[in-house]
Design goal:
With 237 residues, the chain is an alpha+beta fold. The chain is built from six helices and 13 strands. Strand 2 and strand 3 (23-28) form a beta hairpin. Helix 1 runs parallel beside helix 6 (221-232). The protein is globular and about 50 Å long. It is an enzyme of class 6 (ligase). Residues 7-231 form the SAICAR synthetase/ADE2 N-terminal domain. Its EC number is 6.3.2.6. Belongs to the SAICAR synthetase family.
Length: 237
């Protein structure tokens, strides 16, 4: 597989085209950002940890029947993925109240949500990824009803699989966001799944083990990521 020019540079990853029109290379960088890029730092080992963490999670989801963009690890910081036509809608599943839900509704952090809530956000950094509903998705042509229904179905499957997986590791899966795209017409899970895009708390202490440590200036960000990986059995370089 020949790595060619950079196609896109995001806040924490770079995307490169390859000699295969159906495949891309994702490079996980050490860049760490929050608040739509207003807070940015370099954290040593982060690219490696997130790349290997993502590979582990995507393989678990594939085993559970969730189609993913991930193909294979190429190095400590790179992986080979399918080239998707991305849908600009983020699917968020919340098992406990935290983050923007607490701010939006004024509820207490940590309340368990029964049933878990499913929310939609427009992927638009310049506008702060605004909260949207299904009517917006259909009216603006971001996805069809069938596509959105499949996205919700897969998000709920991911929630069940990963809630159980993290529970066995002594962790609460508080919430997470997913992005989807089309690969030859099929809805496929894209982007990444790492502590950057979910909230994880220790079951006993409620210690935060995710990107909130960076957002809130708690320190020990990578150490927390590595502890989560260790509990799951992820092999780190």
């Amino acid at each position: 597989m020949e790595k060619r020019t950079e196609l896109y540079r995001g806040k924490a990853k770079s995307v490169f085209i390859t000699d295969d029109p159906d495949r891309l290379i994702l490079l996980f960088r050490n860049d760490t950002s929050a608040f739509d890029g207003k807070k940015i730092e370099q954290l040593e080992r982060k690219g490696m940890v997130n790349n290997r963490f993502n590979a582990f999670i995507m393989q678990k989801l594939e085993e559970a029947g969730v189609p993913t963009q991930f193909d294979s690890l190429l190095s400590d910081t790179e992986c080979l993925v399918k080239k998707l036509e991305m849908i600009p809608v983020e699917c968020v599943m919340r098992n406990y109240a935290a983050g923007s839900l607490v701010k939006r509704l004024g509820v207490e952090e940590g309340i368990q949500l029964s049933p878990p809530t499913f929310e939609l956000f427009l992927k638009d950094d310049a506008r702060g990824d605004p909260f949207i509903n299904a009517s917006h998705v259909f009216a603006f042509g971001w996805a069809t009803p069938a596509q959105l229904a499949r996205m919700e179905e897969l998000t709920r499957t991911v929630n069940k699989v990963l809630t159980d997986l993290f529970d066995q590791a002594g962790l609460l899966l508080v919430d997470f966001k997913l992005e989807f795209g089309l690969f030859h017409g099929e809805i496929v899970l894209g982007d990444e799944f790492s502590p950057d895009g979910c909230r994880l708390w220790d079951k006993q202490t409620r210690k935060k083990m995710d990107k909130d440590r960076f957002r809130q200036g708690l320190g020990g960000v990578i150490e927390a990521y590595e502890e989560v990986a260790h509990r799951l059995g992820v092999e780190l370089g």
